[in-house]
Amino acid sequence: MIEFRIFSCRMAQSRIPSHIALYDSSYVILFDNGSWSSEGVPRSLFKKMHQATSNIEFVSLGPYKQCFLRLDNGEIFYYVKDRDTRDELKNSNDKPYKLWFSDDDGYILQYADLSLSWNNIPRDFHNKLNRRKKTLTRVENITFGCDNTWWVSFDDGTACWSQNIPSYINKHLKHTKYFVLDPYDRNNYYIFKEDGSSMWQVNDDFDDDINEEEEDDNDDVVYINPRRIRYTQTSISPRFSNGQTIEQLKQDLADGSTSIDDIPTIDVIKTRSGNLWTLNNRRLWCFRHASNIYQIPVRIVDQRPTWFNDRIQQLENPFEIHVRGSSEESDSYSDDDNYY
Question: How far apart are alpha carbons 335 and 333 in whole angstroms?
Protein backbone atom coordinates (compact mmCIF):
# COMPACT_ATOMS: atom_id res chain seq x y z
CA MET A 1 0.00 0.00 0.00
CA ILE A 2 1.43 3.38 -1.01
CA GLU A 3 1.28 6.08 1.64
CA PHE A 4 0.79 9.56 0.17
CA ARG A 5 2.18 12.57 2.06
CA ILE A 6 0.50 15.60 0.54
CA PHE A 7 1.28 19.02 1.92
CA SER A 8 -0.45 22.29 1.18
CA CYS A 9 -0.13 25.86 2.35
CA ARG A 10 -1.20 29.41 1.73
CA MET A 11 1.95 31.20 0.61
CA ALA A 12 2.39 33.80 3.34
CA GLN A 13 6.16 33.68 3.49
CA SER A 14 8.32 36.50 2.23
CA ARG A 15 9.53 34.52 -0.79
CA ILE A 16 7.24 32.66 -3.17
CA PRO A 17 8.25 29.89 -5.61
CA SER A 18 8.28 31.23 -9.16
CA HIS A 19 9.53 28.11 -10.93
CA ILE A 20 10.14 24.45 -10.02
CA ALA A 21 11.89 21.61 -11.84
CA LEU A 22 11.52 17.94 -10.78
CA TYR A 23 13.13 14.70 -11.89
CA ASP A 24 13.41 11.50 -9.84
CA SER A 25 12.94 13.49 -6.58
CA SER A 26 15.79 15.84 -7.55
CA TYR A 27 14.59 19.40 -7.75
CA VAL A 28 15.32 23.07 -8.27
CA ILE A 29 13.11 25.75 -6.69
CA LEU A 30 13.43 29.34 -7.94
CA PHE A 31 11.95 32.03 -5.70
CA ASP A 32 10.58 35.43 -6.65
CA ASN A 33 13.33 37.21 -4.68
CA GLY A 34 16.09 35.68 -6.84
CA SER A 35 17.12 32.98 -4.35
CA TRP A 36 16.98 29.28 -5.15
CA SER A 37 17.13 25.82 -3.58
CA SER A 38 18.21 22.51 -5.06
CA GLU A 39 18.68 18.84 -4.26
CA GLY A 40 20.24 16.05 -6.29
CA VAL A 41 20.99 18.11 -9.40
CA PRO A 42 23.91 17.25 -11.73
CA ARG A 43 27.21 18.73 -10.55
CA SER A 44 27.69 20.68 -13.78
CA LEU A 45 24.31 22.38 -13.35
CA PHE A 46 24.91 23.01 -9.64
CA LYS A 47 28.20 24.71 -10.48
CA LYS A 48 26.64 26.90 -13.18
CA MET A 49 23.85 27.97 -10.85
CA HIS A 50 26.34 29.03 -8.19
CA GLN A 51 28.48 30.87 -10.73
CA ALA A 52 25.51 32.73 -12.25
CA THR A 53 26.08 36.47 -12.46
CA SER A 54 22.38 37.27 -12.88
CA ASN A 55 19.10 35.76 -11.71
CA ILE A 56 18.07 32.31 -12.88
CA GLU A 57 14.80 32.43 -14.83
CA PHE A 58 14.26 28.84 -15.98
CA VAL A 59 15.61 25.35 -15.20
CA SER A 60 14.57 21.91 -16.37
CA LEU A 61 15.81 18.44 -15.41
CA GLY A 62 15.69 15.24 -17.42
CA PRO A 63 16.95 11.65 -17.59
CA TYR A 64 20.67 10.86 -17.86
CA LYS A 65 21.51 14.09 -15.97
CA GLN A 66 20.15 16.21 -18.82
CA CYS A 67 19.36 19.79 -17.91
CA PHE A 68 18.68 23.25 -19.29
CA LEU A 69 19.34 26.61 -17.57
CA ARG A 70 18.49 30.15 -18.65
CA LEU A 71 19.50 33.37 -16.87
CA ASP A 72 17.65 36.68 -17.11
CA ASN A 73 20.57 38.14 -19.11
CA GLY A 74 19.84 35.58 -21.85
CA GLU A 75 22.77 33.28 -21.08
CA ILE A 76 21.95 29.58 -21.34
CA PHE A 77 23.61 26.35 -20.26
CA TYR A 78 22.49 22.85 -21.17
CA TYR A 79 23.48 19.23 -21.30
CA VAL A 80 21.48 16.95 -23.61
CA LYS A 81 22.29 13.38 -24.55
CA ASP A 82 20.98 13.29 -28.12
CA ARG A 83 23.36 14.69 -30.73
CA ASP A 84 20.59 15.93 -33.03
CA THR A 85 19.05 17.87 -30.14
CA ARG A 86 22.43 19.37 -29.28
CA ASP A 87 22.88 20.45 -32.90
CA GLU A 88 19.43 22.04 -32.92
CA LEU A 89 20.20 23.98 -29.75
CA LYS A 90 23.57 25.09 -31.10
CA ASN A 91 22.62 25.96 -34.66
CA SER A 92 19.09 27.32 -34.38
CA ASN A 93 18.46 30.74 -35.92
CA ASP A 94 16.54 31.89 -32.87
CA LYS A 95 17.89 31.56 -29.34
CA PRO A 96 16.57 28.64 -27.23
CA TYR A 97 14.27 29.91 -24.49
CA LYS A 98 12.94 26.84 -22.67
CA LEU A 99 13.49 23.10 -22.94
CA TRP A 100 11.29 20.48 -21.28
CA PHE A 101 12.30 16.80 -21.03
CA SER A 102 10.10 13.73 -20.88
CA ASP A 103 11.24 10.38 -19.52
CA ASP A 104 10.97 8.71 -22.92
CA ASP A 105 13.80 10.61 -24.67
CA GLY A 106 11.26 13.18 -25.78
CA TYR A 107 11.46 16.94 -25.48
CA ILE A 108 9.80 20.24 -26.37
CA LEU A 109 12.02 23.19 -27.25
CA GLN A 110 10.73 26.75 -27.15
CA TYR A 111 12.60 29.59 -28.84
CA ALA A 112 12.80 33.25 -27.91
CA ASP A 113 10.00 34.06 -30.38
CA LEU A 114 7.91 31.45 -28.43
CA SER A 115 7.73 29.06 -31.38
CA LEU A 116 8.08 25.35 -30.60
CA SER A 117 9.75 22.26 -31.91
CA TRP A 118 9.40 18.80 -30.41
CA ASN A 119 10.27 15.16 -30.75
CA ASN A 120 8.89 11.89 -29.39
CA ILE A 121 6.08 13.35 -27.29
CA PRO A 122 2.70 11.65 -26.61
CA ARG A 123 0.43 11.66 -29.67
CA ASP A 124 -2.46 13.40 -27.92
CA PHE A 125 -0.08 16.16 -26.82
CA HIS A 126 1.33 16.42 -30.36
CA ASN A 127 -2.19 16.85 -31.72
CA LYS A 128 -3.08 19.44 -29.10
CA LEU A 129 -0.03 21.57 -29.91
CA ASN A 130 -0.66 21.31 -33.64
CA ARG A 131 -4.23 22.56 -33.20
CA ARG A 132 -3.03 25.45 -31.04
CA LYS A 133 -0.63 26.52 -33.80
CA LYS A 134 -3.66 27.78 -35.69
CA THR A 135 -4.49 30.24 -32.91
CA LEU A 136 -2.59 33.24 -31.56
CA THR A 137 -2.11 31.75 -28.08
CA ARG A 138 1.42 30.82 -27.06
CA VAL A 139 2.68 28.18 -24.63
CA GLU A 140 3.71 29.43 -21.18
CA ASN A 141 4.52 26.26 -19.24
CA ILE A 142 4.76 22.54 -19.90
CA THR A 143 5.32 19.55 -17.67
CA PHE A 144 5.75 15.86 -18.43
CA GLY A 145 4.94 13.02 -16.05
CA CYS A 146 5.13 9.25 -16.07
CA ASP A 147 3.03 7.10 -18.40
CA ASN A 148 2.76 9.76 -21.12
CA THR A 149 1.05 12.28 -18.84
CA TRP A 150 1.41 15.99 -19.55
CA TRP A 151 0.05 19.47 -18.75
CA VAL A 152 0.38 22.70 -20.71
CA SER A 153 -0.70 26.29 -20.04
CA PHE A 154 -1.10 29.12 -22.53
CA ASP A 155 -0.73 32.88 -22.38
CA ASP A 156 -4.51 33.37 -22.60
CA GLY A 157 -4.88 31.78 -19.16
CA THR A 158 -6.16 28.42 -20.39
CA ALA A 159 -4.59 25.03 -19.70
CA CYS A 160 -4.95 21.48 -21.00
CA TRP A 161 -3.79 18.16 -19.64
CA SER A 162 -3.82 14.47 -20.45
CA GLN A 163 -6.73 12.34 -19.32
CA ASN A 164 -4.51 9.81 -17.55
CA ILE A 165 -3.14 12.13 -14.87
CA PRO A 166 -3.89 10.34 -11.55
CA SER A 167 -7.29 11.24 -10.11
CA TYR A 168 -5.87 12.41 -6.77
CA ILE A 169 -3.96 15.09 -8.73
CA ASN A 170 -6.49 15.72 -11.50
CA LYS A 171 -9.18 16.85 -9.06
CA HIS A 172 -6.97 19.79 -7.99
CA LEU A 173 -6.05 21.08 -11.46
CA LYS A 174 -8.93 23.52 -11.97
CA HIS A 175 -7.85 27.12 -11.40
CA THR A 176 -4.19 26.06 -11.38
CA LYS A 177 -1.66 28.72 -12.33
CA TYR A 178 1.42 26.50 -12.37
CA PHE A 179 1.85 22.71 -12.26
CA VAL A 180 4.90 20.44 -12.23
CA LEU A 181 5.07 16.65 -12.60
CA ASP A 182 8.08 14.40 -12.09
CA PRO A 183 8.72 12.46 -15.34
CA TYR A 184 10.34 9.63 -13.37
CA ASP A 185 8.31 9.35 -10.15
CA ARG A 186 4.52 9.44 -10.56
CA ASN A 187 4.03 10.31 -6.88
CA ASN A 188 5.86 13.66 -7.08
CA TYR A 189 4.17 16.89 -8.11
CA TYR A 190 3.71 20.58 -7.25
CA ILE A 191 0.59 22.70 -7.81
CA PHE A 192 0.36 26.48 -7.45
CA LYS A 193 -3.25 27.69 -7.51
CA GLU A 194 -4.64 30.96 -8.82
CA ASP A 195 -5.67 31.96 -5.28
CA GLY A 196 -2.05 31.82 -4.08
CA SER A 197 -2.30 28.47 -2.29
CA SER A 198 -0.15 25.50 -3.23
CA MET A 199 0.12 21.79 -2.62
CA TRP A 200 2.84 19.27 -3.32
CA GLN A 201 4.33 15.88 -2.67
CA VAL A 202 8.07 15.42 -3.16
CA ASN A 203 10.28 14.69 -0.13
CA ASP A 204 11.35 16.06 3.26
CA ASP A 205 14.12 18.25 1.86
CA PHE A 206 11.70 19.84 -0.58
CA ASP A 207 9.31 20.55 2.31
CA ASP A 208 12.10 22.25 4.24
CA ASP A 209 13.30 24.31 1.30
CA ILE A 210 9.93 25.56 0.14
CA ASN A 211 8.88 26.51 3.67
CA GLU A 212 12.16 28.26 4.49
CA GLU A 213 11.46 31.92 5.13
CA GLU A 214 13.69 34.94 5.05
CA GLU A 215 14.65 36.26 8.46
CA ASP A 216 12.02 38.36 10.20
CA ASP A 217 13.35 40.86 12.71
CA ASN A 218 9.98 40.84 14.49
CA ASP A 219 10.40 37.24 15.72
CA ASP A 220 11.91 36.64 19.17
CA VAL A 221 15.54 35.46 19.26
CA VAL A 222 16.58 33.53 22.39
CA TYR A 223 19.56 31.36 23.36
CA ILE A 224 18.87 27.65 23.92
CA ASN A 225 20.87 24.45 24.33
CA PRO A 226 20.59 22.76 20.90
CA ARG A 227 20.17 19.37 22.61
CA ARG A 228 16.77 20.54 23.84
CA ILE A 229 15.51 21.10 20.30
CA ARG A 230 13.75 18.35 18.37
CA TYR A 231 14.13 17.47 14.69
CA THR A 232 11.17 17.57 12.30
CA GLN A 233 12.51 15.01 9.82
CA THR A 234 13.65 11.40 9.97
CA SER A 235 16.67 11.99 7.69
CA ILE A 236 18.81 14.75 6.17
CA SER A 237 21.17 15.18 3.25
CA PRO A 238 24.89 15.07 4.13
CA ARG A 239 25.61 18.35 2.29
CA PHE A 240 24.55 21.99 2.20
CA SER A 241 23.88 24.03 -0.93
CA ASN A 242 27.42 25.41 -1.04
CA GLY A 243 28.83 21.87 -1.32
CA GLN A 244 30.13 21.78 2.24
CA THR A 245 29.31 18.66 4.22
CA ILE A 246 27.51 18.88 7.52
CA GLU A 247 30.39 16.87 8.97
CA GLN A 248 32.85 19.60 7.96
CA LEU A 249 30.72 22.36 9.48
CA LYS A 250 30.43 20.35 12.68
CA GLN A 251 34.22 20.08 12.82
CA ASP A 252 34.68 23.78 12.03
CA LEU A 253 32.35 24.66 14.90
CA ALA A 254 34.18 22.27 17.22
CA ASP A 255 37.67 23.63 16.47
CA GLY A 256 36.53 27.28 16.50
CA SER A 257 37.30 28.09 12.87
CA THR A 258 33.58 28.83 12.44
CA SER A 259 31.52 30.66 15.07
CA ILE A 260 27.83 30.18 15.75
CA ASP A 261 27.50 33.85 14.78
CA ASP A 262 28.65 32.90 11.27
CA ILE A 263 25.65 30.57 10.87
CA PRO A 264 22.18 31.93 10.06
CA THR A 265 19.83 31.70 13.04
CA ILE A 266 17.63 28.61 12.98
CA ASP A 267 13.85 28.91 13.18
CA VAL A 268 12.11 27.03 16.01
CA ILE A 269 8.47 26.36 16.81
CA LYS A 270 7.44 26.16 20.46
CA THR A 271 4.36 24.05 21.15
CA ARG A 272 1.95 24.50 24.07
CA SER A 273 3.72 21.73 25.97
CA GLY A 274 6.94 23.75 25.77
CA ASN A 275 8.65 21.43 23.29
CA LEU A 276 10.94 23.06 20.71
CA TRP A 277 11.02 21.90 17.08
CA THR A 278 13.48 23.08 14.43
CA LEU A 279 12.62 24.06 10.88
CA ASN A 280 16.32 23.78 9.92
CA ASN A 281 17.35 20.21 10.55
CA ARG A 282 20.86 20.23 9.06
CA ARG A 283 22.03 23.25 10.99
CA LEU A 284 20.61 21.78 14.19
CA TRP A 285 22.50 18.52 13.56
CA CYS A 286 25.78 20.46 13.34
CA PHE A 287 25.12 22.38 16.54
CA ARG A 288 24.07 19.25 18.43
CA HIS A 289 27.13 17.25 17.34
CA ALA A 290 29.77 19.94 17.82
CA SER A 291 31.31 19.07 21.19
CA ASN A 292 31.75 22.66 22.39
CA ILE A 293 28.32 24.16 21.56
CA TYR A 294 26.01 24.55 24.56
CA GLN A 295 23.90 27.60 23.64
CA ILE A 296 22.76 28.81 20.22
CA PRO A 297 20.54 31.70 19.11
CA VAL A 298 17.17 30.54 17.77
CA ARG A 299 14.24 32.45 16.37
CA ILE A 300 10.88 31.48 17.86
CA VAL A 301 8.39 31.71 15.01
CA ASP A 302 4.62 31.72 15.32
CA GLN A 303 3.58 30.50 11.89
CA ARG A 304 3.61 26.71 11.55
CA PRO A 305 3.97 24.97 8.17
CA THR A 306 0.81 23.06 7.28
CA TRP A 307 2.70 19.77 7.56
CA PHE A 308 3.97 20.45 11.07
CA ASN A 309 1.33 18.85 13.34
CA ASP A 310 1.01 15.64 11.32
CA ARG A 311 4.76 15.26 10.90
CA ILE A 312 5.79 15.59 14.55
CA GLN A 313 3.17 13.04 15.61
CA GLN A 314 4.79 10.47 13.32
CA LEU A 315 8.32 10.87 14.70
CA GLU A 316 9.27 8.07 17.08
CA ASN A 317 12.42 9.74 18.41
CA PRO A 318 12.63 13.43 17.41
CA PHE A 319 16.02 13.81 19.11
CA GLU A 320 17.64 11.52 16.54
CA ILE A 321 17.97 11.90 12.77
CA HIS A 322 19.57 9.78 10.08
CA VAL A 323 22.23 11.27 7.80
CA ARG A 324 21.80 9.70 4.40
CA GLY A 325 24.91 8.01 3.03
CA SER A 326 27.32 9.91 0.77
CA SER A 327 27.64 6.94 -1.59
CA GLU A 328 23.88 7.00 -2.01
CA GLU A 329 23.67 10.75 -2.63
CA SER A 330 27.06 11.85 -3.89
CA ASP A 331 25.47 14.37 -6.27
CA SER A 332 22.87 15.70 -3.83
CA TYR A 333 22.77 19.23 -2.54
CA SER A 334 20.12 21.29 -0.84
CA ASP A 335 19.83 24.99 -0.22
CA ASP A 336 17.77 24.33 2.90
CA ASP A 337 19.60 27.09 4.74
CA ASN A 338 20.44 29.45 1.85
CA TYR A 339 23.97 29.69 3.23
CA TYR A 340 25.12 26.59 5.09
Answer: 7
